[in-house]
Write a structure and sequence with these properties.
By secondary structure, the chain is mostly helical. About 35% of the residues lie in helices and about 10% in strands. It has three helices and two strands; from the N terminus they run E-H-H-E-H. The chain has helices at about 25-40, 70-75, 90-105; strands spanning about 20, 75-80. The chain has a two-stranded antiparallel sheet. The longest helix is centred in the last third of the chain and has 18 residues, at about 90-105.
C-alpha cells in the first residue's frame, strides 16, 4: 500500500505549502492518519469537500462541472506536517512513521 508523494518538474522545483500523500484508497488514508496520530504526528485532509460542495458555494450552478477525479482524490489525500520551523529531527520522525506504516501494510 504505497503512497504517492509529489515531485518536482524538471527545472521547476515545487514550493510546498502542504505535503500531500495520495493513498490507494480512503481506508488506507484514514489508517495512515490514525497511525500518525497515535505517534503524535498531526495530519489533515485539507479539502474535506470539493469546492462545488462547500456550503457557501452550493447555490452557484453556473460553475458545476464533472469533478470525478477531485471526488476520487479528496478522501485519499493526507497532508503531512510542513512548516519552516519543522526541524530535521521532526521531519525524520514523520518520514520514519510513514515508512513504518507502509512496512506494516505491505
Amino acid at each position: 500500500m504505497l503512497a504517492h508523494a509529489p515531485g518536482d518538474a524538471e527545472r521547476r522545483p515545487h514550493t510546498y505549502y502542504k505535503y500531500p500523500l495520495t493513498m490507494p484508497d480512503a481506508t488506507s488514508a484514514a489508517s495512515l492518519m490514525t497511525h500518525l496520530g497515535r505517534a503524535g504526528i498531526s495530519t489533515e485532509q485539507v479539502y474535506p469537500h470539493a469546492v462545488p460542495h462547500q456550503p457557501a458555494l452550493r447555490e452557484i450552478t453556473h460553475r458545476t462541472t464533472d469533478i470525478a477525479v477531485t471526488l476520487d482524490l479528496l478522501p485519499r489525500t493526507v497532508c503531512l506536517p510542513l512548516a519552516p520551523e519543522l526541524t530535521d529531527e521532526e521531519a525524520d520522525r514523520v518520514i520514519q512513521a510513514v515508512h513504518d506504516f507502509q512496512a506494516a501494510t505491505v
